[in-house]
Design goal:
Layout lengths: L5 H10 L1 H12 L11 H13 L4 E4 L7 E7 L4 E8 L24 E3 L3 H21 L5 E8 L10 H6 L8 E4 L7 E6 L1 E10 L15 H9 L3 H4 L10 H15 L6 H4 L2 E9 L9 E10 L5 H15 L4 E9 L2 E2 L5 H14 L4 E4 L6 H6 L4 E3 L14 E3 H18 L4
Parallel strand pairs: 3-5, 3-6, 6-14, 7-13
Antiparallel strand pairs: 1-2, 2-5, 4-15, 7-12, 8-10, 8-11, 9-10
Bound molecules: zinc ion.
Length: about 425
């Protein structure tokens, strides 16, 4: 039994802040654009870091272009925490729009600069750093840490977290932390579901010169159905009593982050975006076919039946014949309760380190977190970021955010794994 305390581990983490900043910068300096670039170099770097730290790892993949690195430390028994991060980044794009080299990893007095600084190489650095600090401290862990580093998040996760969860790598975990970028005062603890509705309208073609006399215009028919889209966006979520406070917090966070009054309604209402439409052959022909796809995000508790009934109502209210629909389900809304160990640990330590109130809140979009939640693992996202620059030129991250996130991970792991 070692007598290393939580405070000893924290002191060690604090004394190594510069190492953490350098690690984030080193990761940024390895280009890993997805799509197009290679993930090999950044994965090799992660493996070398683990091996130098004396942490055993293995590489697993279903696609050699997108390898995953798994590592484990601690005992087989006890609380089991997954740490997840992706090392792929969106392409840097037009270099002339950057004020600095996107793969320079430059460190200024306050910031680390480059593609992936916020999304999410600083977060990955924080996770790797936390494991190494715990390892070097010699603290006794009453449980284990399982690292999941993936290299396919930005193109849909098929070869990354989704595959890992399908293969059973999340089995037996009691919590998961994903170091995706968040503001320092929010912990992402839930997300909406996702569904595509494809409307297909069939008409009858005729010569365009007789368009308002002959034929049956499939585009105009579909247009009438799409005009009823508010029937979808009026649908509200259904919440048990114990989620009402989280709902209120999530709406408050959305209004602040999106800086728009009333936009908190996005959390508890269906959102619907007509994102694709195609129909017709030529301007001088009455179109006999038109198809449109709506991307819907579903609040908690809205099910298949409620959406399908509404879709039928939209067509009926349009008063048209020959419009069919197809529902393509992507995912259900999913949440991690505020009273779970993982939310409580991150909240407590983030509040202590930053000296502010930190709110668990649900996303208006979706993320990999659902894969773990669907496996029954309480999961949160919390990570260093400057939201401007994410998926855009001039991405960067504040050094203070990176250093604090590293300490929050270290202290939360101590709390979850019984280091007192
Ligand atoms: Zn990301």
């Amino acid at each position: 039994m070692s007598n290393v305390t939580r405070n000893d581990v924290w002191e060690l983490a604090k004394s190594r802040s510069n190492d953490l900043v350098k690690l984030a910068s080193d990761l940024i300096r390895i280009p890993s654009e997805n799509p197009v670039g290679t993930q090999r170099d950044v994965i090799d770097f992660v493996e070398k870091y683990l091996s130098d730290a004396g942490i055993s790892y293995e590489e697993v993949s279903c696609n050699p272009d997108h390898p995953n690195v798994l590592a484990k430390m601690g005992s087989d028994e006890g609380f089991s925490v997954i740490l997840n991060g992706h090392v792929d980044v969106v392409p840097a794009g037009d270099r002339s729009q950057w004020d600095y080299d996107p793969f320079g990893g430059e460190i200024t007095d306050k910031r680390i600069l480059g593609r992936g600084a916020s999304d999410m190489k600083a977060g990955v650095a924080g996770l790797l750093f936390a494991m190494k600090v715990l390892k070097d401290s010699g603290a006794d862990l009453k449980g284990n840490i399982r690292l999941h580093i993936v290299s396919d998040e930005e193109s849909g996760s098929e070869y990354g977290t989704t595959w890992l969860c399908e293969q059973g790598y999340a089995e037996g975990a009691n919590a998961a932390i994903i170091a995706e970028p968040t503001t320092n005062w929010t912990i992402e603890s839930g997300q909406k579901g996702n569904l595509h509705i494809v409307f297909k309208s069939t008409g009858k073609s005729a010569h365009g010169s007789l368009g308002n006399y002959k034929g049956d215009n499939a585009i105009l028919k579909l247009n009438k159905v799409l005009a009823n889209i508010e029937m979808l966006t009026k649908i509200e979520g259904h919440y048990p009593k114990d989620l009402l406070q989280s709902l209120a917090n999530s709406q408050m966070v959305a209004e602040k982050e999106l800086d728009m009054k009333g936009i908190g309604n996005v959390i508890n209402h269906v959102s619907a975006n007509v994102g694709l439409i195609s129909g017709g052959t030529r301007p001088n022909m009455v179109p006999d076919y038109c198809e449109a796809t709506i991307d819907c995000r579903l609040p908690y508790g809205v099910d298949h039946e409620e959406i399908e009934n509404t879709v039928k109502e939209m067509i009926k209210a349009a008063g048209v014949e020959g419009v069919e629909y197809e529902l393509i389900w992507k995912s259900e809304a999913n949440v991690t309760r505020d009273d779970s160990d993982i939310v409580q640990a991150i909240k407590k330590n983030a509040e202590a380190i930053w000296g502010i109130t930190v709110y668990p809140a649900w996303q208006w979009a979706c993320s990999d977190a659902r894969e773990y939640r669907l496996k029954g693992v309480p999961t949160i996202q919390y990570g260093p970021s400057n939201t401007e620059g994410i998926h855009a030129p001039n991405e960067n991250v504040d050094i203070e955010d990176v250093v604090n996130a590293g300490q929050i991970y270290v202290l939360s792991l101590c709390d979850l794994l019984g280091v007192k």
